[in-house]
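Section 3.1: Structural characterization of target chains.
Under the original work plan, the team committed to producing a structural model for every single-chain target entering the pipeline before any wet-lab resources were allocated. The record below documents one such target. The sequence was received from the expression subgroup and is listed exactly as submitted; it comprises 329 residues.
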Amino acid sequence: MKFQEKSFSLVCLFFLTVWLTVSGQQAGQCLAVITELDGEVQYKKASDKEFIKASWGTQLFQGDQVKTLAGSEASLLFSNNSFVTLGPNGSMTISGKKPSETQPAGNVKNISSATMVNISGLTLRKDNKKDVGALAGLRSDDTELSIELTSPFNTLIKTNRPPFSWTAKAPFDKYIVNLYNSKGLVWSIKVSGCSMNYPENEKELEFGQSYFWNVEGEAFIENDKSANHKFSVIPLEKSKEVMEQEALIMSAFRDDPAGSNLHSVLGAYYMDLGLLQDAINEFRAISEIYEEATLPHEILSSLYTDVGNKDKAIEELQKALALAKNKEE
């Protein structure tokens, strides 16, 4: 049977640009990546004899085979700009040609030629133990503080009215959130919890400008203060472009608005733009959908490294190691 084809546009997307080092195979050989799966999905490398269980982010190369068991489905993003859904009891051999048939029939969504897709950046680590070992001795250079900022944290942001969040290791009665620009204090707001929306009565931030912020904790005996962290608001025209592309991406996956395909594409798009906090949110969602998958935690580790949060980077990489070890047992 032939696939039923649908066309849609996703503009200026680099799918999962390089964040991890390829081990064992050249990234340019990757022809497809599994971006969503439901039930039992298996794959077999061209050089292997046995099928093994697939997971989110599994890379597929020339001659590899993927199959779904009864009641199972899988979505694959191909390097030739096609999203393929493989239905229950389906099978497929990966090649550089455009997917046309499978058993039973699935469907293909064709990404327009205007879209730039680079699935080779989706890199599955081959030796998690070695990777974790490379970071095992690292810790943040900062003295451990009782208040740590979480968002926005050393990233670009797309809105000029961002929310703020932080964590506290000690109890405080109130928190004072201070925001600064290059000229000095912009505003200072006192709140009771560990998060706040942008103050309604304060002027919006300026597009294309950078800011710093910190949080002071007030307690009966002793006060404490977080470190300062920077974020930058993208230019106005870029912000409008992001909104347009988000709408296109969400429209393309409107049939599954909570699925990992949407999170994968949005996460890749945000990564490419340097909207790292938004990317973290997307891959965090994927890690919650696929609790046994190691790759989402490796990606999160890389993103936390990029924003300078070494402790969170190590935490995510340790999760990946633990999951990989469980699979070996």
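Confidence is low (pLDDT under 50) at residues 1-28, 100-105, 111-133.
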